[in-house]
Structures are given as C-alpha cells and as structure tokens.
Design a protein that fits this description.
Elements (H helix, E strand, L loop, with lengths): L6 E7 L16 E6 L6 E6 L6 H6 L6 E3 L8 E7 L2 E6 L9 E6 L9 E2 L10 E7 L8 E6 L2 E6 L1
Antiparallel strand pairs: 1-2, 2-3, 3-4, 5-6, 6-7, 7-8, 9-10, 10-11
Amino acid sequence: MDESANEMYPCFYGEGFVKGMETTSARPEMMVFTSDKDGQFDIYEADLPTNQSVLHFLLSSNSKTVRKLSLNTSSNDHMPFVYGDLLVFSSDRPGGFGGYDLYYSQKTANEWSEPVNFGPKINSEFDEYRPVVSDYPEFSNRLMIFFFQSSWRFGWI
C-alpha cells in the first residue's frame, strides 16, 4: 500500500467472516496490517472492495484508503490478528511485563476499544508476539497461539 514503508502481518475480517472458518460464503470486508510509515510500527485498517477479489485489489496500482487505528501509541504496535470482534496484537508500550506483550481490544460500533494487556498469565519478561486466535471444539474458551521468544506456547482467552 505504501512502497516506501515496511508493511506486514495482514489479517482479514468482516461481518460473518471469521478467519479460519472460510466454509461460509462470507468474504472479508476489512484488512488490518502493520506499517512503519510514520517511524514506528502502527496498526492500520483498510476497506476491501466487494466488486473484486482481495488479491486483485492488493496487487492493483489503484490508491487505497488506509486509516491508522486510534489505539496506537508512540510505541511499536504490530502483528494484529482479528477474530470476530476481538483484535489481538503485540506491543512494546510502557507498563508491560517484558519487551513485547500481547494486548487485546474489542470492536465497538465505530472503532476499537482501549487495548488491555493480557497480564502475567500470558505475558512474561520476554517477548510475546504473533498471536493467532481460534475456536477449538474441545475448549469452552477461545484458543490463542503465539510465539514466545524463540518457541511457542498457547493460552485460553
């Protein structure tokens, strides 16, 4: 979207579209991703058109309307993942337990809520990053898988 910046970690979401549950006919309406175009990593959102495929839209040279989410701080906020109305991401914002902690935000009518740190049961003195959330039939809660320094572990949310 901005060739002069590092943009990564795209995640698609929308009404009725849940990542990992592509068996429905729902298609993604929005995309969140990370970019460092303003000097640090922030989370951005873009509308996806309904009249063309997502891949065609992303590869096209047409200009794209991109919005910086209001939950960003002057710290690095990145690696977003949306599952239904839940946004999870990694950040090195002050007040965390380590270098990068995992945070969550709920979708409200018009925006995302103020992010909340998952706390010490998920975060540690090390870096937690690249969270992915899903339902798992054998659990009553959602399952979150994420990377912890150079290994991986999972938790329930």
